[in-house]
## 1
Amino acid sequence: MTTATETPAPRVDNNLLQHDNKVFLKFVTISSPDTLARFNNDLNVMTAQARRILELNQRIQTSLTTGEKDAISKLRDGELADFNQKDDIFAKVYGFKVDSVAIRPHFIQNTAIQLMTPVSDEQVAELRKNPEFKEADIQARGNAKMVVLSKVTGDHIPVLNNSIEVIQVQQNTILQLRAAEQAATDEAAKARIKEELAKATDVLTKNAEFMGKTYGVVTNNLVFDVLEAHFWVALTPDELKAYVAQNHGTAAQALAEATDAPKLDVKKDKKSS
C-alpha cells in the first residue's frame, strides 16, 4: 500500500538502458538474421561516410588557401549529397536516419542466438535416425550444411560467451603445457608439468561437460547465428528528460537523471562511438 508520505518507484522502461554512465534508447529491434546482417553492413557504411564528412568539414576549417578550401568543399558537398540520398533509403528500410545517430555512442545487443556446427551428408544421415530429429535443425549456409545445437536468449548469452572464452583459454593452456612437457629435460620439471596438465585437463573436461549439458554439443567449430538484436543509441540529458516527460508524465521529469532503466553489465556485441 502507498501512503501519503511514500514516493512510488519509477516504472522500469525496457526501452531505456544504462551503460557507461549514459542512458541508451532502444531504436529498433531486428528479428531476422538476414536483415540484421544487412543492417550491420548498411550502418557501418553510413557511419564511416558520416565520419568522412566530419573530417572534410574539419579540413575546410583549417584550409590555408581559398583554392584548397574550395576543392575540399566540393568533395564534402559530393559526399554529403550521396550520404543524404542513401540515408533516405536507410530510413525507409529501418525507420530512422543514420544522420541522427552516426556520431553518437551506439551498439547492437544480441538478444537471441542459435549455435550451429558444420555437418557432412553422412552425419546428417546419422542424425535423421534419431526419432527426435527435426529437419528444420539442418540449415544451409552457402555450400555447407549446419546442424542447430541450441538456441540461447537474453541473459544466457553473456554466460555462454564467458564459458566459451574460459574453455578457449584452458585449451591454449593445455597446448602450452604439452609443449613445455616435451621441451623439459629435467625429470622433476616434467613431473610438475604433468601434474599441472592433469589438473588443467580435468577442469577443461568439467567445463566442456557443463557446456554440453547446458547448450548442446561443444565442438571446436561453433557458428553463432544471431536471431534477434536490439540497436541502442545514447540520449543527451535533455533528450532523456523529454522522453521521460512524454512517456511517463511531467511529474517524472525530476527522476530523469536517475531513470530506473535496466543496466547492461555484459560486453557490447558491436560498438561505434
## 2
Amino acid sequence: MLVLVIGDLLLPYRALDLPAKFRKLLVPGKIQQVVCTGNVCDRQTLDYLRSLASEFHMVKGDYDEVSDLANLVLQYPPVRIGVVHGHQVIPAGDKAALASLARSMNVDVLLSGYTHQFEAYAYEGRFFINPGSATGAWSTEVPLPSAPTQAASTTSSQDTPEANKATETGKPVTSAPSEPVAPEPDPLEDGSEEMVLDIQGAVVVIYIYQLINNEVKVEKLEYRKPVETTDPAAEA
C-alpha cells in the first residue's frame, strides 16, 4: 500500500501554494491513502489532497479548523502507525516526549509534524517520522536564516577591474556577453518536503521527497518491525 504523508502547509498564512513540482508528482489514483499531520488551513488545498486517494486521514494542527482529531491510530497489520500534529508535545519535537506518546498510543511508528523539519529515526524500539513542511513554510520553532545585508550583497561599480581600467584609459570598456543565468530557486519553496510510505506487511519503505535548489531529491529509508518468533520447544 502506498501512503502519502504530508503536513504543515499553512496556506496562505506562511506560504503561497504547494510547489508545482510536487503537484506534478501527485497524480490521483497512484496512491491508496493520504495521511496529513495537520495545518493545511486552506479549504481548496484540503479538497485537492482528498482527491488524490480514496482514503484520507488528518489530525488537527494548531491552525486548523476542519478536523477535531487530536491523534489517530492507523492499522496496517502487523504495523500500527500513530499520527499527531505535534504542537501538544513539549518541548517541541522532543524524542523522549514523542516516545512517551508513542507508548501511550501503542504504535510501532509515530508520524508527527509542527517543527517543519524532516526527521526519521529509531528510538526505544519504535520508529519516528516527521515529514517536514510540504510548502517550506517557516516555523516559530526554527529561526529564519538571516538575509545578507545590502552592503555585503552589492559590489560598487567603482571597485571592479573594468571600472579601474576605464578610469586609467579614459575609454569605456565593453564587457563580454554574459552567460545565461539559471532562475534562482524560490526561497519560499526551497526545503519543501513530503513522503510516501510503501507498506508491505512488517516492512515500511519510506521515500522522502525534498525540493532543494529547485530540484526534487529523493531519499529512501526502511523500517522493519521485529517479528516475534515462537520457540517450538517452549510450546511442547
